[in-house]
Amino acid sequence: MPLRQQPSPPTPWDRGLDQPQIHESAYVHPSTSLIGDVRLGHQVLIAPGTSIRADEGMPFYIGGNTNIQDGVVIHGLERGRVTGDDGESYSVWIGEHTCITHMALIHGPAYIGDDCFIGFRSTVFNAKVGHRCIVMMHALIQDVEIPPGKYVGSGVVITNQSEADRLPDAKTTDHRFSHHVVEINRALLAGYRCADDVACTTPLNNGHRSETARPQTDRLQEQLSAEVLEQILGQLRLGNQIGIEQADARHFKVGSWQSCPPLEGTYPQQVLDSLNRRMTEYQGNAVRVFSIDSHKQRVMEWLLQRPIPS
Asked: H or E segment at 67?
């Protein structure tokens, strides 16, 4: 049974049985647990398997064009509030055009600004994350205020303000990737809304066939999952190199790969452009990329495309 309209249960701290307030353009997947005084703005996407529970701490606000991805948990303590951009008091405020990605935990009191990216399994608790911040995977942000425009790397723990103040600025490529994820999820929102309507889905499918009007890098990013792209960009931020290999259908079956010329470029966007050229060059073959650390050890590997059977 979908829980999207369930009120918060009667408790010692709230007897009002508050209902979620959902903008008509937002989408909440039926498997979501959406409970209590949760306010969703326009074009918000709440993906499958999330739990957004405004019972003890409340209210929650999630701004327009923000996506809450699979498995995210949002909850709040009874005590402690943040001030939203509207000047009102909230247990959790999440701004506009922000990505809260798979399995992240946002626990109020918490404020996350506009145009932010919170990576897989990261936790934000009793903290404020300013506008345009990028938080990568498995990070912990607690009891601090992250200034606007900062970058928090994978696995980083920020629990005192001096650490937060020393964080580096997010790069243009990081923001470009965050915006790309927002656009992916806007397309998902449209797809969810009309999944059972053939007349509706036909224009969506046709819209992806206008290949010549988009830059090559945009087409590459459509082929790669958001998770793989985040992994590649994260490895580049660590200073690791990205290599590439290819195999036709026959060699792919026996695990025999051929090294390709190295990817060119110093900046992440240049590397992605180079990767696009390699994938075009080896169209029809299997292509995989891998990360090499400073000790020349292979540390990560991703299969980008499978071969076309001969």
From this structure: strand 67-68
